[in-house]
Amino acid sequence: MNAWTWVAAGSFVVWLWLLLGHGGFWRTGVRLPDTGARAEGTSAEGAAEVWPSVAVVVPARDEAEVLPASLGSLLAQDYPGRAAVFLVDDGSTDGTGRIARELASRAGALPLTVSSPGDPELGWTGKLWAVRHGIALARAQKPAPAYLLLTDADIAHAPDSLRELVRAARAADLDLVSQMARLRVETRWERLIVPAFVYFFAQLYPFRRVNRPRARTAAAAGGCVLLRNDAAARAGVPDSIRHAVIDDVALARAVKRGGGRIWLGLADRVDSVRPYPRLAELWRMVSRSAYTQLRHNPVLLAGTVAGLTLVYLVPPVALLGGAVAGSPAAAVAAGAAWAVMSGTYVPMLRYYGQPWWLAPLLPFVASLYLLMTVDSAVQHHRGRGAAWKGRTYPRPDRTEQPQPRVRPEAQVQPQVRPEAQPQPEPREQRARSAAPGTPLAAPSPAADESGAP
After folding, report:
1. Dihedral sign for Cα atoms in the order 217, 220, 225, 230
2. Using alpha carbons only, how large is the chain's radius of gyration in Å?
3. How far apart are CA 106 and CA 100, in angstroms?
4. How many CB atoms lie within 10 A of CB 109?
5. Which tens digits make up the pLDDT trace of 411-434?
6. What's the whole-model pTM score?
7. Three-class secondary structure of residue 391 per DSSP
8. Short-list 63, 236, 230, 77, CA closest to 152
């Protein structure tokens, strides 16, 4: 056996293991837990169902363009219980707060609070600083909400999204339920790169392993996270993860370490409305946090490059090399590895409504991700690290001591005027008391800002 054969055989063995022994990462059937058929508004026994209260926290930084689709969908949620939306405007300069208040003026909308925490303190990312402020506002309500829905300002929810998230969390007794929003796939580059982004994420964090209570694997998708309030308090969230750039994974790990049960799956009716029309935007989306994922470790970077090369680049190269070198064994092994790779990618392409013939192009897409990862490390060493909307986050100080976990009632609450904290009412009562066009949002106590990192 020549070198081509050995390399190709090694890649094929890796793909067999990924196919059969890696938590079925390639399957796309992990959706919200089945709660069974149930009449609307009733429990399994037929009695009237009491729905827990929910606070929706939306960090937003310069999101005026997408708010009508995203925030509008949240304000229009058809939730039978008590719910309120808290948009935390983190330094926006495009009128994000003003547009949010205008959206809240529609009749029948959920009550909205628009507020700002000011610039983040040292050691905090902008998004988590905004989330902290939003959670504190929510917990200041009397009574405090039973659940927190943490969602990004570019995520649009179907009208029943909140109801189904809460139903699933209660039915399966889950402390955290997260759905990976379906990203936009309209341009040529989005169709090529976006499905692979979710595929690689699932390969890194197989959903079925995440959802096993005793498994160490933990992850969430930050665009849509329903979190039990007391589980967040036990985990010290968000203070315990305040410097995390990849905050969704850090959040899931903190909840799972605290004994909470978590669930992660693909979404059917939760969609990202943020466009990534060109390769440059998609490149920045990946590269801004890729080296952070590797813990800023050059050794892990080298191992990742070697792994991506063996798993994704070797099959087509070894197939060509084996054919040129006259080695049928190398060509067969490389071709088999490429076939298995492509086969595991087809379900994700179908989920995104893309043709199957894009699957053999996965090695090319993987090579782009490899370059994005290397570029992420280069940008970090040039001092541009994890950059997003004018902020750059350096590597966290390993000597920094974590803040102690505190109970929610002991946390410092932001100082806001009482009128900035609307008390949610049942939707039926709001519909009777608010005439069309009546503003349901109180004026913000601070200047327009937002909370994405």
Report:
1. positive
2. 23
3. 11
4. 21
5. 433 333 333 344 444 443 333 333
6. 0.84
7. strand
8. 63
